[in-house]
Amino acid sequence: MNRVRWFFLLVLTATATLAEAQVNTVQFGQNRVQYQKFKWKYYQSDNFNSYFSQDGLGLGEFVSQIAEAELPSVERFVEFGLQRRLNIVIYNNYDEMQQSNIGMGIDWQNTGGLTKLVNNKMIVYYDGNREHLRLQIRQGIARNLVENLLFGEDLGEYAANQALLDLPKWLTDGYIYYAAENWNTSLDDELRAVMLAGSYRNFYQFAFEKPDLAGQAFWKYIADKYGKNKVTYFLNLARTYRNLNSASYKLAKKKFKAVLQDFMNDMQSVYFKDIKGRRNAPRGQLAVSEYAGKKDFYHFNANPVPRSFSYAVTEYKQGRIQVVLMENFVKRNVLLKQGVLSREQDRNPNYPLLAWDGKGTRL
Predict the structure, then answer these.
(1) What φ, ψ does residue 194 adopt, rounded to 5°?
(2) Is 1 a domain residue?
(3) Helix (H, G, I), strand (E, B) or coil at 159
(4) The model scores a pTM over 0.85
(5) Sign of CA dihedral 103, 105, 106, 109
(6) How many domains, in total, are found in the chain?
(7) Which of 68, 76, 135, 197 has the most crowded CB, counting CB atoms within 10 A?
(8) Domain CATH code at residue 109
(9) Boundary (domain end) residue, out of 247, 276, 305
(10) Is the omega angle on the peptide bond into residue 352 within 30 degrees of 0, that is, cis?
(11) Same-domain pairing of 186 and 90
(12) 154, part of any domain
């Protein structure tokens, strides 16, 4: 009888331990409510499987065509080829992508679009602008090629190489963005504002606050100063030597920190000379400084009337959105308020969109 009792207690203890172990492996906050079921089909081409859901056949064909057309130029730039067919998961809009559980936990990337890679999957969405979609596809292809080049495809190999090859994220992401789209006027305007403001004492502060812009601007600087063919050359040097200082000595005959300081000095000089070279000071609206705190002011629209002191701004904080109209720097009117508090929710970069009429009388 005692043996039976001890055996029963042993089974209960083991069951409780197993139950506790199972509970500890649960990751809370990682599931999303799916308001609609996605019935996936795919369109296969030579190098891609393009997965689309309901009413997405035309979009799937378009994405497949664009991906095949853009692949050769990205491969030439990275100097590395696609190793296996790449899967592209296509959502008809941003909200559909928000409901998906595919690829949870992967960082969002900005710059003309949002792209995620999950193993060999690239996730894109359509916002009504085909150029944005093309850029997302180029970014996804570039990320797949670069990560396979630097770290390999096998999970064990990937982890080992990532530990040995300790490259800053802003550096590798910046290379990916530069491979997808070298530069554009919007990025140039943003970099000009940063350099003229003098807000950062060194490049590391700049890269910490604005890693995507800093990374892409760094590779543009390398291309402009040392030649475009030196961009991938420098990345390969860093991969070979597993050390940025060694790669920097090979390319620029100086330490990597000195190259970054040259970047800050040279870019500030370029933009200050540009201003001094203008016959008249550029005319525009009054510059407005907003205290963001923990909010993300991701849409800002000044009144187009030159002498007006009104502007509208979209405030985003942890899932909550507010559209605020400021008049004469004092009067604050909340025009739109929606959303629920959520630390997991990603903001929709395309909503809400703000615009003034030509006379500046209606927003």
Answers:
(1) -65, -45
(2) no
(3) helix
(4) no
(5) positive
(6) 3
(7) 135
(8) 3.40.30.160
(9) 276
(10) yes
(11) no
(12) no
20 within domain boundaries = no
Q: Are 82 and 75 in contact (CB under 8 A)?
A: yes
Q: 10-residue block means of pLDDT along the chain (363 residues)? A: 48 40 33 61 91 87 96 97 90 82 44 50 90 96 92 64 76 97 92 87 94 97 96 95 94 96 95 72 46 56 77 77 80 82 65 79 82
Domain enclosing residue 113, as ranges = 41-147
In this structure, what DSSP letter does residue 84 have? S
Q: How far is CA 283 from CA 32, 189, 329, in A?
A: 47, 15, 20
Task: Report the candidate in 125, 132, 140 with the shortest Cα–Cα distance to residue 67.
Answer: 140
Phi, psi (5° rounding) for residue 299? -135, 125
- Give the DSSP letter of residue 281: P
Give the CA angle between residues 272, 301, 205 to the nearest 5°: 45
DSSP string computed for 187-214 = HHHHHHHHHHHT--SSHHHHHHH-HHHH
Tell me the residue ranges of DSSP E strands in the chain.
41-44, 48-52, 86-91, 116-118, 121-125, 296-302, 310-317, 320-327, 331-339
Is residue 155 in a domain? no
DSSP 289-312: ----TT-EEEEEEE-SSTT--EEE
Q: What are phi and psi of 337, to 5 degrees?
A: -140, 125
Distance CA 363, CA 355 (A): 6
Are residues 219 and 243 both part of a single domain? yes
Distance CA 23, CA 169 (A): 33
The residue written with tokens 């100086």 in the block is 254
Whether 349 contacts 297, CB under 8 Å: no
Residues 291 and 272 in one domain: no
Measure the CA angle with vertex 190, ends 184 and 195; round to 5°: 120
Residues recorded for the chain = 363
Instruction: Write the CA distances from 244 to 150, 165, 212, integer angstroms.
Output: 14, 10, 19
